[in-house]
Amino acid sequence: MQIMPSTRIVPSLAGWCCQRGRALVLGAVVFASATVALTASGAEQFEVETSRSGDRIEVRARANIRAALPVVWGTLVDYENLPEFIPGLKRSRIIARNGATTTVEQSGEARFLFLAVPINVTVESTERPPVIEVRRVSGTLRHLQGRYETEVSADPAHVQLRWIGSIAPESDLPLWVGEVLVRHLIEQQFRGMVREIERREAARRAAATPAAGK
Predict the structure, then answer these.
(1) Which of the two residues, 60 and 36, has the higher pLDDT score?
(2) N or C: which end of the chain has fewer CB atoms below 10 A?
(3) Which of 175, 156, 160 has its CA nearest to residue 45?
(4) Cβ atoms of 89 and 189 closer than 8 Å
(5) Which residue has the higher pLDDT, 149 or 37?
(6) Pairing verdict, β 56-66 and 158-168
(7) DSSP string of 104-135?
(8) CA distance 107 to 114
(9) In terms of Cα–Cα distance, which of 71, 109, 99 is closest to 185?
(10) How far apart are the first and last CA of the chain?
(11) C-alpha to C-alpha distance for 177 and 170, rounded to whole angstroms
(12) Residue 195: which H helix or E strand, with range?
């Protein structure tokens, strides 16, 4: 992973953390670029972009993955096992199902340097293949709405996975801190999802190899 940041020390953040009763941090990294291009283990292209729109942070992420669509979809909707491969997510519990909509309680934290911000949120996830729509019902995030999109390429062994959405952290978080945290969180979590899809695809292929050779 290669990131080109510019760095500056912001002492006022330490005072803010004291008021919040959280760990002190004496500085933070402010990214000059809102685009982070990454190389995952098997993904041909992996990109996360963020931009600010008022008090909301617009997010676009995408990855081209060499995997079968059922593997991609099965990983996306494996709600209760998400903490096993999504960084920062400690708990994910299904509390209701209504047709194509699943309501999930999630808790964890967004971390950046020495700053940790707890996140507790309840979301509704509505599965409308090839799209999964997600929206906040309640919790510490003031706003969360977006969707996963899956698109099979000309080669059916490749799928493009996209996340498009917007997030607004809790209101007393300084604007620039919120954007840095969201960008870092989305980058880590989207990469965790991609890696798990790749792991499951590799396991599927390995399991199919002996049968194919008979």
Answers:
(1) 60
(2) C
(3) 160
(4) yes
(5) 149
(6) antiparallel
(7) EEEEEEEEETTEEEEEEEEEEEEEETTEEEEE
(8) 19
(9) 109
(10) 41
(11) 11
(12) helix 175-213
